[in-house]
Amino acid sequence: MRKLALHDDILMQVEKPARYIGNEVNSVEKDRTKISVRFAMCFPDVYEIGMSHLGIQILYSMLNGWEDVWCERVYSPWADLDQIMRRDSIPLFCLESQEPVKNMDFLGITIQYEMCYTNILQILELSQIPLLAAERGEDMPIVIGGGPCVYNPEPIADFFDLFYIGEGETQYRPLIDWYLENRRLGGTREDFLHGAAKIPGIYVPQFYEEMYNEDGTVSGRRKKYEDIPDVIMKEIVTDVTQAHYPLKPVVPFIKVTQDRVVLEIQRGCIRGCRFCQAGQIYRPVRERSVDKLKEYAVEMLRNTGHEEISLSSLSSSDYSKLDELLDFLIAECGQKHINISLPSLRIDAFSLDVMSKVQDVKKSSLTFAPEAGSQRLRDVINKGLTEEVILNGATLAFKGGWTRVKLYFMLGLPTETEEDILGIGDLSNKIAAAFFEAVPKEKRVNGKVQIVTSTSFFIPKPFTAFQWAPMCTKEAFLEKAHLTKKGIMGQLNQKSIKYNWHEADVSVLEGVFARGDRRVSKAILRAYEKGCMFDSWSEYFHNDLWLESFEACGLDIGFYTTRERANDEIFPWDFIDCGVTREFLLREWKKAQSQTVSPNCKAQCQGCGANRFGVGICHEK
Amino acid sequence: MKVRIKFAKYGSMKFIGHLDMMRFFQKAVRRADIDVKYSEGFSPHQIMSFAAPLGVGIESCGEYLDLEVQSMSSSEDMKNTLNQVMVEGVKVLAVNVLPDQTKNAMASVAAASYQIHLKEGAFGIPDLAKAVADFYAQERIPFTKETKKSVMEIDLKQGIYEMYADETQVLEEIMSTSAAMYIADSAEKRKSVPCIRMTVDASSGGNIKPTVVFEKFCAFTGCDIPACAIQVTRLETYTDLAKGGQKRQLAPLLL
């Protein structure tokens, strides 16, 4: 039997010891004498969040499919265990072998949101790995960053030996082969990194230096070796149907956020919303074959015993064989009492019909994401959802028995006016009114409709049309939230509407990290040293420490957030090529300012540049 | 048709709480493709009920759950299929078909037997057998039971049906893998592990925690052994076969 890294008395002291013991169904144990490469795959947040991530399951399964590699998992120890590990100098360990992370060959960290940056430092420090890549010795693991945030890796560049830009399925084998080859040749860490920097999609930040103009903007980059690329092209899977898929995902003992089988039906999104980074960086749209998905569903349910299955994609309604897939799932899951959850579906007659078959109408709620309160602003952001469509969908749903609606909006979008903000209340009110119109009094369950309107603050992201846009200050954000609230309170049906808004402090910081340059890493390090960690958990977020850290590093937050960027400014992430061209994004930025919508990929190609990958929707007839 | 499943839980699995064990078995039943019966209603669930919840940190080779099935081939078959989908640290020991009228597992529980031994080292009590006997010979063992709602004076002695020290046979009675974890591999060392055994009330009204008894024992003997130094193992869960008025007649939930 495995020996656990933590003593019983520690495990009995901490909240949810199951986070730290491994041993889950489908977790992989290997004979360490037959392994050449040890890989620790990390999601830098608490177990329940990390275990819900599909990407890690894919890479875990793929890497463990190779005989010479053993991939294990690592998550952030929660604050209670963190304290104990520091006190007793217990090195952070992998869940499967319970051996220290520092003994592994690689530590891969997936970076899904900016607010986990200090958690990355926690992982490194608890692992007893030097925080700065430049200070790591020959015997330390190679620390790799991946995931959407590495499309602007500069704010965390100092902490990583290399970044993997793009989809993980393609270059891990070449990277590991080179690692083994370099080891055989007796090469150094530097030799390995130098060779790795020439593998497609791999970026070794310490070989590049960022240079600045007097006004603080980026002037260019210098590289250490002539033979490494100036531009890093993202990696993509050309045939998603043939790509590796985790048919035996790890099944956690404790309840996690995504406690279900996840079927990734497609990658990419045809929609082209101008605020959305995922919609750009995962282009082009590539669908997985429906037959394959049916096969996967059956096998994964059998292998996990999960009682729920969910479809994953940026916009499920755009999947061309959706009805065929859902018919199959309804038939298959119905007899086995398996629930089907359907996120990101457009609300229309078809989806309502499907939902009424798989959900308890009385208990479930409908979700609309208009993102902006007026048609004018929805045109600016290219969100092709009209008020008419929303009201028709809601009316249909109310007639079908639904009484709960969730609405998502963003505040602080480019060109936003007071009128746009007040439109949020108007639209919420109209939906409530639609309920009272659609459902006669005697048929109203509890006599009520519940509308939950939520706003988040708009954060401009790299590789979007809004990467040039100024972001609001905290004060401006809060004013907008108050105006939204006032607008809702003034509505006829205000009693049916509940309003939630996000914290503004965290959004401002996220804005800095999203479009930050390499200098920002100093502030992240400083804030971590002051005790910042789990910043995405409001009880652990200390804005004052962050502000102090930026000041101490001589960095102006406004430079990264509220500053208007010139059309020709060099951005810290410009050396990455995500397929979508800067010219296209600039065109979209200009169209946004003139409130011109762009049709989606299926309707008409906009020439974004992603067609050069030679696959996906760009090349379908 | 109702079946009763007896299982052991040990090693790292002792850190998995009761509710998570229920979820674990629900998923296991699906993986094993058992033709389980579901409840009616919009969100049907498997008809499954556990006997006595086991505290986190405690190992057991006497856990029970009842499951209603539509059909099955044989008990032995079900045991094997289930064991194929278990993890290290959970093992199905037996499956029995129950007569239709059997009370459910939880309602049937009357008592449980436990074993307490040290994870490392010895109790440090010169004559453990005598110390335990002296402790158990007390007429009353008063204990202040504090719950969220009330503070109550109770007499533990009423609920301790048996208590003695033992020195051998750890391996015969609990899972070998489990024992191997806390006793170093030497075979001689295994045999000489001293332990305290007890059978206590485990009914819903009068449940007694073995750790509470051990604390009282330590106070009585004047030894100082922290809770984190001991390993508690539930050996068996019992039902009471006695009819009204008869003397207690404990029998394992599954013979």
Summarize the helices and strands and which ones pair or pack.
The complex is a heterodimer of chains A (621) and B (255).
Chain A: H1 8-13, E1 37-43, H2 47-50, H3 54-64, E2 69-75, H4 79-87, E3 106-110, H5 117-126, E4 142-146, E5 162-164, H6 172-184, H7 189-196, E6 202-203, E7 208-212, E8 218-223, E9 232-233, E10 261-264, E11 266-267, H8 278-281, E12 286-287, H9 290-304, E13 308-312, H10 322-335, E14 339-341, H11 349-358, E15 366-371, H12 375-380, H13 387-399, E16 404-411, H14 418-438, E17 450-457, H15 474-489, E18 497-501, H16 504-514, H17 520-529, H18 543-552, H19 557-560, E19 576-577, H20 582-593
Chain B: E1 2-9, H1 18-31, E2 48-50, E3 59-68, H2 75-84, E4 90-98, H3 105-108, E5 109-118, H4 128-137, E6 142-146, E7 151-155, E8 160-166, H5 170-173, H6 176-182, H7 187-191, E9 195-201, H8 210-221, E10 230-240, E11 250-252
Parallel strand pairs in B: 3-10
Antiparallel strand pairs in B: 1-3, 1-4, 2-3, 5-9, 5-10, 6-7, 8-9, 10-11
Estimated structural class of chain B: alpha+beta
Largest sheet of chain B: 9 strands, mixed
Strand order of the largest sheet of chain A: 2-1-3-4-5-6
Question: Largest interface here, residues on each chain?
Answer: A-B, 30 and 34 residues
SSE series of chain B: EHEEHEHEHEEEHHHEHEE
Mean pLDDT of chain A: 95
Q: Low-confidence segments of chain B, ≥5 residues, pLDDT <50?
A: 170-174, 177-190
Strand content of chain B: 25-35%
How many DSSP E strands of chain A? 19
Structural class of chain A: alpha/beta
Number of helices of chain A: 20
Task: Give a structural overview.
- The complex is a heterodimer of chains A (621) and B (255).
- With 621 residues, chain A is of the alpha/beta class.
- Helices cover 33% and strands 14% of the residues of chain A.
- In chain A, helix 6 packs antiparallel against helix 7 and helix 13 runs parallel beside helix 14.
- In chain B, strands 1, 2, 3, 4, 5, 8, 9, 10 and 11 form a nine-stranded mixed beta sheet that branches. In chain B, strands 6-7 form a two-stranded antiparallel sheet.
- Chain B has helices spanning 18-31, 75-84, 105-108, 128-137, 170-173, 176-182, 187-191, 210-221, and strands at 2-9, 48-50, 59-68, 90-98, 109-118, 142-146, 151-155, 160-166, 195-201, 230-240, 250-252.
- The longest helix of chain B has 14 residues, at 18-31.
- Chain B has 255 residues and is α+β, with helices and mostly antiparallel strands.
- The interface between A and B is medium-sized, with 30 and 34 residues.
